[in-house]
Specification:
mainly alpha; 573 residues; 0% strand
Length: 573
């Protein structure tokens, strides 16, 4: 049993002791009152003065019992409210805030780079270009990354692996702002040159060749989009959650993870308002990019610092526990460590084979792919409509950043209200909420698009409906989907957490989003544009949600079984 577990048990025993003591006082007072009353009745036949004296004593003891009862009730109510609002034990507070701060800055950088990549690609190349970038740029890059990451995980220490994975992304964002973007005019071909290379007529306004020509003519923006997309998967899925799963126990995760989402919900608010009130107020987009990169670089530095500080704190706590346990179970501890060292590392091929043979990991992958497909079906269509309403890059950036702030605020509200849904209602309800919410809200959005966008009023209605649908889809994802998905990894062994998780989070999410992009590419070729393909997309959208909900329900059965086994082992230890 660890030092923290002993402290927690000691505190709980003390609380029970206080309540027991108060209850004993209450019982004793009640007994005294009964005996006093009895004495009064007995003595009333002999002496008339005695009942008055005894009744006064009885009243005094009754008042004492009432006060004790009120104290117990107040203490119980205070404890319940603390468990509801902040169910973190006193000795866990520092650990919680150190790890939670990593996620805050991860999400802060993610929000800034995500909104910026969308602004550049959508305004320069069109929203349909996103579908092509995700297949021909993001998916190969993500696959290459996971191959390199898997190899590095075989010989690099976890701390070194974290820094080696994190720092290059922020170095690219800094160099893009300082070197690449200022010189884009000299390193990018003109649109006419790109069209001549592809043999596309300058009169063409739609089609795959036109989209590719725009991407070639704006390849620096396309490159930023690809790196930012890979970072969005790596930063949350691998940098943060893999570290959190390593240092947070199952019992802590039920209380930590929903509150991690609450802390990270503040990051989009900060990022969005930073862009709306400062970055987007620049004289041009280049100056806006400078201001945005300053905050992204600062976030990268803070991620590394909080990772270092949290590791140092956890190591100090582990040393304290080791000293406290010194002399106890000396034969057991070395044996346990030796078993961990004997674990063999799997190759990339073995990792992929393990992923395919494990139903548990396949179901987690189904959840990730399901979200990636469904959100992609509506996201590109909505951004295409937003571009029609906000064609200027700074206006588009301002709108998207304001939307990110609303997403963050909504996430905080939903988490504050529903943060205990996982703890109280269970993992299954938390996992099923996101697909159910998306199913309900997508219907009015698809209906608005299918009805037509031929007037400014209809365009505005469609943008609003899409904003509400996307808003609540992202809100439930951050508040419920991410915590439940990450909790599903905890009962797994270390090998499955590292390589199975990396494969699911990076390649799995890319298959979902890139698969959705591939489908939409085909629809663009058939229908001419994504708006005309709305009815077909609606059918595909609801089919994916049904498959996602089935996978979540099946995974919940396996999760409960594995969690029960792991908790029983922890209690035995």
């Amino acid at each position: 049993m660890t030092l923290q577990q002993r402290r927690r048990l000691s505190r709980e025993d003390k609380e029970r002791g206080n309540i027991s003591s108060a209850t004993s006082t209450l019982t004793l007072s009640t007994t005294t009152t009964t005996r006093g009353g009895g004495a009064a009745i007995i003595k009333s036949n002999t002496k008339a003065v005695t009942p008055t004296t005894t009744t006064t004593a009885s009243s005094t003891t009754t008042t004492s019992s009432t006060a004790s009862s009120s104290a117990v009730a107040t203490q119980s109510w205070t404890k319940r409210m603390r468990n509801i609002l902040f169910p973190i034990y006193e000795e866990e507070t520092t650990k919680f805030f150190l790890i939670g701060s990593i996620k805050f800055f991860v999400i802060l950088a993610l929000t800034l780079t995500r909104d910026n990549k969308d602004t550049m690609v959508v305004t320069e190349c069109g929203a349909e270009a996103i579908a092509f970038l995700k297949i021909y740029g993001v998916l190969p890059s993500a696959t290459l990354f996971i191959g390199v990451y898997s190899k590095m995980s075989n010989f690099l220490e976890k701390k070194t692996l974290f820094y080696t994975t994190c720092i290059p992304f922020f170095l690219f964002f800094f160099l893009f702002d300082a070197v690449i973007y200022p010189n884009r005019a000299s390193i990018q071909p003109s649109l006419s040159t790109a069209q001549s290379i592809l043999g596309t007529s300058s009169q063409s306004t739609s089609g795959a060749s036109v989209i590719f020509a725009k991407l070639i003519a704006n390849w620096t923006s396309a490159l930023f989009y690809i790196v930012a997309e890979v970072y969005s998967s790596v930063s949350v899925g691998i940098l943060f959650w893999q570290y959190a799963n390593d240092v947070v126990s199952v019992s802590q995760a039920k209380r930590f993870y929903p509150l991690f989402a609450q802390m990270s919900g503040l990051a989009p608010i900060v990022a969005g308002q930073y862009v709306v009130r400062y970055a987007s107020r620049a004289k041009d987009f280049g100056e806006s990019l400078h201001r945005l990169t300053w905050m992204v670089t600062f976030s990268g530095v803070m991620i590394c610092l909080f990772y270092r500080w949290s590791n140092a704190y956890i190591e100090r706590m582990a040393e304290a526990e080791s000293r406290a346990d010194e002399g106890k179970n000396k034969a057991v501890q070395p044996e346990r460590k030796a078993k961990k060292k004997k674990k063999a590392k799997m190759s990339m091929a073995e990792s992929a084979k393990f992923l395919a043979s494990s139903e548990y990991l396949r179901l987690i992958a189904s959840l990730v792919v399901g979200y990636g497909l469904s959100i992609n079906f509506t996201d590109i269509m909505w951004k295409s409509i937003v571009k029609q309403q906000y064609p200027d890059p700074l206006d588009y950036q301002r709108f998207i950043s304001q939307f990110s702030s609303i997403v963050g605020l909504s996430t905080c509200i939903v988490i504050f209200v529903g943060v205990h849904a996982i703890r109280i209602l269970g993992w299954r309800i938390g996992a099923l909420t996101t697909p159910l919410v998306m199913a309900c809200l997508a219907f009015p959005f698809f209906s608005g698009v299918i009805m037509g966008l031929d007037t400014p009023r209809r365009l505005k209605i469609a943008v609003t409906l899409g904003m509400v649908q996307t808003l609540l889809a992202k809100t439930t994802k951050y508040a419920l989907f991410d915590p439940t998905t990450q909790m599903a990894y905890i009962p797994l062994d270390d090998e499955s957490k590292v390589k199975g998780k990396a494969a699911i989070e990076v390649i799995g999410s890319r298959i979902g989003k890139s698969g959705g992009s591939l489908i939409q590419q085909g629809l663009v070729l058939v229908f001419g544009n994504i708006i005309s393909a709305a009815p077909v997309l609606a059918v595909l959208y609801y089919s994916v949600l049904a498959w996602w909900a089935y996978s979540a329900n099946r995974l919940s059965e396996l999760f409960y079984a594995r969690t029960a086994m792991q908790e029983s082992k922890e209690h035995e230890e």
